[in-house]
Amino acid sequence: MTPRLHIPRPHRRGFLTAAAGLLGVSALGGCDRFAASPTGQRALRAGEDANLFVQRLLLTPASLAKEFPDSEISPWFKPNGTIEPPDRAYKALAAKSFDGFKLRVDGLVERPQDLSLADLRALPARTQTTRHDCVEGWSAIGKWTGVPLAEVLKRAGLKPNARYVVFHCADTMEYAMSGGEDEAEPEKTANPSMETRPEGAENQASDSQAAGAEAPNAEDEASQGTPVRYYESIDLTDAYHPQTILAYDLNGKALPVSNGAPLRLRVERQLGYKQAKYIQRIELTEGLTGIGDGKGGYWEDRGYEWYAGI
Ligand SMILES: Nc1nc2c(c(=O)[nH]1)N[C@H]1C(S)=C(S)[C@@H](COP(=O)(O)O)O[C@H]1N2
Ligand SMILES: [Mo]
After folding, report:
1. Is 272 in the pocket of ligand 1 (CB under 6 A)?
2. CA-231 nearest atom, ligand 1
3. pLDDT, tens digit, for every residue of 279-294?
4. What is the pTM of this model?
5. CATH of the structural domain 66-302, one choice from 3.20.20.70, 3.30.420.10, 3.30.43.10, 3.90.420.10
6. What residue's CA is closest to ligand 1, atom 15?
7. Which residues pair with 104 in a beta bridge?
8. How do residues 213-222 score in pLDDT, each as one tens digit?
9. Domains of the chain: which residue ranges?
């Protein structure tokens, strides 16, 4: 993929536009008509009906992201962003090959879940070989295996007002000073690109390892401020898309730490930064305010588009 110079404008009518986008622009008229109709309104408000609507709408070949033959798998899937979370809790789990890991599913659900990797591997699985496009301008093709997010949501049961799926990740990106004036006026990234990422925030673990030191532990060092961890969010359209999976394997092997072990999101047809790694909690919400800086993701809070359609 060539460097992405024009990122689509935020979609104002999130649900519908996202669905329409997956079908191609020509479907917009139909979608708009559906939304305008009383049935459409009702369907879009009620979670279950909306899910059905979305499934019907999306289960057409045109709506799937391209999948590739094994012969096209990249020999190396470049890790990016955090490649080794510095957080103590994460490191402890990683040291035990994630034995004891539990994915928490909560928020607007009927039955909160705590799922081990064995639980997740026992659920129906999907394997897909897709191309990952980072906003920085590089791509890689990987073969992902995981549980469809829809399966996990089915177990948890959505409450009718659930609209977004928020992925809380284990990796601290930076520390925020509490009570600081900068909270009132967050620094805006003039030209949002990965190059603007502050040095050191990118890979605290290897930086400190290179220096022969223990990685910082957010929990221990209150003086550093509150840890700001990576997070992402998607709407129900993408959550129920058949290619939206919580991946635990990459190219037939357990996901390496650098690529997001033990569990990372694959939400195909969106850019790299939506593919949350190190997922530890999935929260169903009605809106995105009150989470991070309220824009739906760590990079979104720093100027990136929330709907990062490819
Ligand atoms: N938790 C977490 N998820 C993340 C990131 C990160 O820094 N932390 N980086 C994002 C970005 S910008 C990209 S391109 C992909 C990189 O995934 P990879 O390391 O498997 O290549 O992960 C995304 N998900
Ligand atoms: Mo990225």
Report:
1. yes
2. 1
3. 999 999 999 999 999 9
4. 0.74
5. 3.90.420.10
6. 272
7. 114, 281
8. 344 554 555 5
9. 10-63, 66-302
